[in-house]
Amino acid sequence: MFRDPSVLIDAIAAAPDDPQRARLLHDGARALLAEPARVAALAALLIDPGDSARQEAAAALLSDALAEARMAAENDAPEGRALIARLDTALATQDAARPFAPDLRLNLARIYARAGLVPPPFAMLSAETLPGTAPEAGEMPDIGALLDPILKELGDAPQQVHAALAELLAGLPRELVTLMVSMTVARLGDVEARLGLYWLLDPEPDTRLAAALALLSRAEDRTLAPEIGALLPALRKWLPDEDARAALDGAIRRQLQNRAPPAPGPAPGVQPEIREAFASLPDGAGAQSLIASLRIGGQRAVAMAMLKQGHGVKDAFVIPCETQADQKTVLTRILSQIEAFQVPPEALAEALARGLGEAAELGLLPAPGMVDFAEFLGPDRLVPRPGATPEILGSIGAPEELAALSDANRRKLIARSAEWVMQLDQIDSWFEDTGDLRAAIARARSDTGRETAVWKHLATRRDWWARQIAVSAATLKASSEAPPRLWLSFAAVAQALVEGRALKRVPIMEAIVAMTLAADEDRHEEEVPPLTAPREVLALLARAQVDGAYLEGYLTALAIAPLQPAPADWLVALLGMIGAPRSDLLDPLMQFLMTEANLINEISGDAQAMTRALAQLHDEDLRDWAAGFDDMVQATRGSWPAKRLNAEDKRLLRDLRRAADEGGTGVGPLREVLPGWVARRHALRQ
After folding, report:
1. What is the CA radius of gyration of the chain?
2. Which of these, 304, 319, 329, 628, is most buried using a 10 Å CB contact count?
3. Cβ distance 515 to 433 under 8 Å?
4. Whether residue 158 sits in one domain with residue 35
């Protein structure tokens, strides 16, 4: 965990490229999730005035941390709710003491919206704070001033326009949002009409109604393009029975009266073509990824959707690609991160239809990006269909196949589930981790008690796991890449769970119990700081002014010395600074130093890990780090022979020595060059 959020913010703001910035944001967000108490300090950095680069970095980190917390909360992991609650409390307290300015409220609203969360009251503007802009004031907002710059930058990517507007509108009063949605969709332009389709899937009923009425008005004025109007019947099937759907019915009728061509999509000859389609198995949280590479005339794209059990179609978006090589690179990068099976486009459409059906049953709306999926898959193929376990099994013909087998063969198929973990990477994520289960495991006083707690929890999740396994069966059957007939083993287990087979007689459930207990143990290990020492040892080091930064620099030099120093050389020099410890502290001190040395040795071989480690240090700490490094070099001169040092090595050793001097020329430039140099030297050591 970073020692001070401001240090990490500085590192993010100064990141030399997007990949490093993304790594710092990801690691920082995960660290905040593990230690939610730190989020208040981060919020204070965002609120305090400062340079724009630091504020942008703080906003990005806070948004990523909230996104991690939202996903954790959706999976019932308590740390997600804890982070959100701590941040809400900290910001609400500050707002109560000194109300936030409108621009800060809007910035906070954008941060929450970007993370997929509804902005809290302290991030919202009220109609009273916007004189002259509320509908009753008689003055209309300048939609052109808001929309035109976004269209100029993102006009060829309507979904990105929608996302940008969603962030801008997140903190405004609802009545103003609906007015601006209505006025935007009413503007003449195909992008504006497509924005109306996205807003038809907004969580807010008022927004959906405003979009539907504006689309109806455009249909009546004959300004709604045929390809846009042809998508309306598909979206109608995804909406609940409400005023927005009634308005949409009117728009559909008007389009028919206008004799609009029934087929959606681009002009003839450039119909979307799905080149390849892939589907993953659902992970332990019930999330399944769907991927497709597309060609639309001369344009290429990669489309992605995520289905999540209990949520329906959780996410959907299209990534434009300039060239075929670009498309291949994007697709390869995505597929390298997940285990996915190639499937026919029909399987992609069927999976999405199941997700739409589940969302409808839960009273949820699909992600707005489903508009684009309807266009390239065809709206007629995305009709919501039942998504319960029996319907999924029935759609792949599993009941008939299983009924034709003997009882003994069906039992063999169920027994094969013991092999799934070895056959499929995704099964490693099939474990349970909720707040209630953590508490139940913690209350148990023995290994048997902990295992019993997990079995009791699984009994309440029988239906959930049955559907999870049925979705996996459908995916495996659709793919020619999957091991032959493996899908039938999944189908047999799903059907057995539906029929009430004892959980302990299903091998995969035993594996889920084992993985759940192992994950719980790992979580507790991660909560323990990697470097620990008795309080007396820490006090001994503090009295000797051997702080953490100095020791890290000292042991980094040990890890990358061209020739391995003898233990007596580096230990004697270090113990000389610390002084002779009491006899009862000698062993704990030595154990601490060796543990620290092993950890630093691992970090030194990874330039990215070194970047993150140095990002945690203030300039003063980095000067201490340089002092420790230089002291180690001086104590072990025989391990740094000149013939094994190139010009870069000699220059950096001189720079480190200068940086160690309080009156030196500064340490800032070292942050950029040290990680790569340390990793290279680590690879060359002997």
Report:
1. 30
2. 628
3. no
4. no
